[in-house]
User: Which sequence fits this backbone?
């Protein structure tokens, strides 16, 4: 993939540092709390005996059980600690226990009878709320193996324990396992979180057109690594900037260019003097009021750290992480890496962003609202919803295109193709229109004419490289004309976005050179 579609790349939202009630003071003078905050669960467990037996130790055992994903045990311990009355009714310790009790109960509700799978190398454990989503496991395992190798070297840290993923089947369930509200989730389109030493994601199956779920998984894994690397001292803006910068590193040695919609957001925000401040990003970008503000925040922090790396090299990023771990503020650490004060860096970065986004405010590119699926058919084609050719105006091109849609819906592909060709001839602008090209290309593919389909699907894919159905169709067209390598690339792109397209697996089986992989894909193939 060489570029990023607006919503699915700019809004692969994550949550690394949400507000959690401040830990209550304990008899161990911070040993347990420090270990827990740094996700050093061995250290936290070792500190438990220093806490006197009774409700406080019981509560901390319950909190630790949440981080260990032993939610039933956590509920039992925390319920008993609170019922004893030994924590006090309104104390900080009681507030903390109630917070984690809600998480323990919410996690059990969100996962239900979870189906848990461990990767062949033992480094990843995934709990699926819905058995249908177990299809994701082998692709996630392969991606995480590559990410573990690449990012371990990049960030200087590798987990010494299995990384836990939880895949939910409803975005609303994120409100059960985090301090996020439903309003937060739907306003910003949040689909991934990293907190309590686990990564929680929504399945791409329940989004209307999927989303870049593998890049999101790696994005969240970057959060995981930074938490370990800095002992959880990195602020939100630094976490998110690095996660956006490195989320595609598992599949590409270079960071993909900033998409047109993000450049437009930056240009408009600079023009009106309304950038999202670093303070506004805390405690979470997921708590910003709109998807647009969230996308702008991501564009800001990604370009900040990309600019620093371009000017000061990888050593600059390493210096920031080292200094933050040592207790220095992220702003001061960045200033040290830059070689001048933080205000100087921000001024240089602002000039850089002005150049980067020059002219982007006039672009047609716009954020597309993330829509969650309302129904059970993950292969349903959303491209025929509504008047998809209204942008062609009121002339003959639009009339022919709309007739093409009606003929398609009524099962007359050859007649539809004739109308789409008439639409393309009626208006020079329509000839290169990506929506029209997609519709006609898919019909030619259906009619077993891949040579005519491919150039049309290339137009559609260039406009929206992260539309899974287009990528899958392009992959099939390339396969049919003999371009196996091009087919692999297009099919891999579709897989990264929506692996629940049944026909996708038929083509993946055909291009695979690995016998177990071929067998797996053939089993998933549905035409």
Assistant:
């Amino acid at each position: 993939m060489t570029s990023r579609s607006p919503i699915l790349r700019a809004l692969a939202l994550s949550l690394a540092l949400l507000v959690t009630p401040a830990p209550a003071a304990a008899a161990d003078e911070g040993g347990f709390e420090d270990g827990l905050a740094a996700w050093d669960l061995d250290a936290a467990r070792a500190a438990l005996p220093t806490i006197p037996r009774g409700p406080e130790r019981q509560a901390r055992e319950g909190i630790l059980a949440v981080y260990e994903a032993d939610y039933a045990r956590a509920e039992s311990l925390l319920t008993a600690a609170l019922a004893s009355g030994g924590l006090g009714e309104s104390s900080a310790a009681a507030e903390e226990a109630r917070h984690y009790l809600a998480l323990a109960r919410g996690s059990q509700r969100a996962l239900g009878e979870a189906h848990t799978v461990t990767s062949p190398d033992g480094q990843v454990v995934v709990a699926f709320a819905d058995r249908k989503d177990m299809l994701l496991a082998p692709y996630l395992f392969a991606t995480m193996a590559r990410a573990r190798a690449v990012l371990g070297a990049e960030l200087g840290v590798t987990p010494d324990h299995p990384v836990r993923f939880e895949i939910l089947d409803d975005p609303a369930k994120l409100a059960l396992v985090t301090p996020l509200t439903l309003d937060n989730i739907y306003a910003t389109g949040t689909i991934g979180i990293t907190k309590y030493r686990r990564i929680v994601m929504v399945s791409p199956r329940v989004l209307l057109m999927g989303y870049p779920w593998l890049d999101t998984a790696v994005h969240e894994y970057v959060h995981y690594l930074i938490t370990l690397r800095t002992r959880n001292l990195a602020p939100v803006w630094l976490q998110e900037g690095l996660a956006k910068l490195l989320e595609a590193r598992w599949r590409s040695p270079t960071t993909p260019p900033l998409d047109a919609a993000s450049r437009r957001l930056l240009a408009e925000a600079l023009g009106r003097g309304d950038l999202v401040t670093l303070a506004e990003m805390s405690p979470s970008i997921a708590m910003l009021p709109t998807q647009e503000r969230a996308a702008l925040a991501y564009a800001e922090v990604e370009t900040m750290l990309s600019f620093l790396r371009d000017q000061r090299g990888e050593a600059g990023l390493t210096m920031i992480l080292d200094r933050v771990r040592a207790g220095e503020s992220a702003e001061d650490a960045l200033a040290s890496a830059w070689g001048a004060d933080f205000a100087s860096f921000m001024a240089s970065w602002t000039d850089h962003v002005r150049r980067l986004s020059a002219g982007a405010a006039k672009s047609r590119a716009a954020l597309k609202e993330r829509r969650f699926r309302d129904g059970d058919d993950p292969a349903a084609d959303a491209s025929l919803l509504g008047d998809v050719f209204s942008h062609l105006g009121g002339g003959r091109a639009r009339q022919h295109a709309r007739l093409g849609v009606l003929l398609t819906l009524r099962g007359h592909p050859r007649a539809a193709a004739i109308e789409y060709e008439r639409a393309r001839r009626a208006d020079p602008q329509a000839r290169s229109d990506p929506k029209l090209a997609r519709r006609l290309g898919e019909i030619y593919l259906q009619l077993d004419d891949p040579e005519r389909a491919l150039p049309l699907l290339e137009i559609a894919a260039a406009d929206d490289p992260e539309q899974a159905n287009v990528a899958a169709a392009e992959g099939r067209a390339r396969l049919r004309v003999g371009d196996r390598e091009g087919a692999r690339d297009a099919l891999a792109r579709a897989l990264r976005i929506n692996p629940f397209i049944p026909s996708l697996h038929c083509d993946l089986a055909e291009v695979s050179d690995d016998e177990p992989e071929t067998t797996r894909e053939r089993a998933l193939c549905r035409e």
